[in-house]
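For reproducibility, we list the full input for the uridine-5'-diphosphate complex.
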Amino acid sequence: MRVLVTGGAGYIGSHTLVELLSAGHEVCVIDNHANSSPEALVRVAGIAGRDLGSHVLDIRDTAALAAVAQGFRPDAVIHFAGLKAVGEGEENPLAYYEVNVGGTLSLLRAMEAAGCGRIIFSSSATVYGMPQYLPYDEDHPLAPVSVYGRTKRQAEDILRDWAAARGRAGAPAAAILLRYFNPTGAHESGRIGEDPRGEPQNLMPYLAQVATGRRAALRIFGDDWPTPDGTGIRDYIHVVDLARAHVAALERAAQATGTEVYNIGTGRGVSVREMLAAFSRAAGRALPHEIAPRRPGDLAESRAACARAAEVLGWRAEYGLTEMVESLWRWQSANPDGYGG
Ligand code: NAD
Ligand code: UDP
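The corresponding predicted structure, in tokenized form, follows.
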């Protein structure tokens, strides 16, 4: 298929490009590099042994986006572009609504101009909010507790309304909403990986920078949570598994109409202490850490029910914790300054 990929130079986008190219798809990337390096695309082409088209532009520039889409004539769009730092969203909500919600509207306008009616959207487990039960299934009520989470829920609503209206108008569309849990790890080559700007806000990139010596110690945000070891539990998913879920979703989008929602995780919970131990093993030394107060807005536990993706998409995660931490360490130790090094 011909696939337009917004945000393709980012962490999840770059890994997905490798899988798309390896599966024989034609890709065209849109990215303004607000949070990525063009070097990621050079490395993707090197790993896949194939060229890819790319355009440096902002998804909010509807006219430019429509021109690219009309030229490329995509069969489907994978929409990664967005802002994702939870704390930054609280400080600057307008930027988050503009890019994540406004950018999605702009993209749909450009797709209409190019006659494209299939989209796969990067949503997040954060749309669920406080768990009413665990694991979260796709029917769990949506009550996001952050600006970032609300932008994702609003974008989901827009996509759902758009697909329904197109169906009623006799121009069926497919919107596949993938709710990612906690992506981590890197491509096995160690050539592409997560490259956050500034101080990492998430556990895995922070741990990786402690291991290279760039950060002094991991702060564990609370050891008094109602979990077996008192630290927060998350459902970490290898980024290559996540990338492959997009290839499966693309195949599904070719046949489906309307909106479909899938959790993308492993179903397995890992605590901060378990992750620290696993990453220390991969890095070959005990990593410094200290107990810090709980982080505002944090959840004790998050875990996915993944049966729907297995049944309908035929996708399930293949990699475990060892592959996640070893691949992350391979990337981080070979590229201590990310793409800037
Ligand atoms: P990322 O920041 O590495 O990638 C996003 C890409 O979008 C970057 O290359 C960035 O330059 C680009 N971008 C941002 N604003 C843009 C704009 N206005 N126009 C064009 N390009 C723009 O993030 P990621 O981790 O790869 O996440 C990809 C998507 O998945 C995001 O939508 C994110 O919200 C979602 N998501 C990520 C996680 C996670 O933990 N990484 C979890 C759930 C959902
Ligand atoms: N966490 C931590 N120290 C950090 C970053 C995160 O202890 O420097 C904990 C956090 O409290 C949570 C888990 O690690 O229990 C995962 O946090 P992350 O921000 O990576 O993911 P999210 O909370 O968004 O699912």
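The domain at 2-184+236-264 is CATH 3.40.50.720 (Rossmann fold). The chain has eleven helices and 13 strands. Both points were considered when choosing residues for closer inspection.
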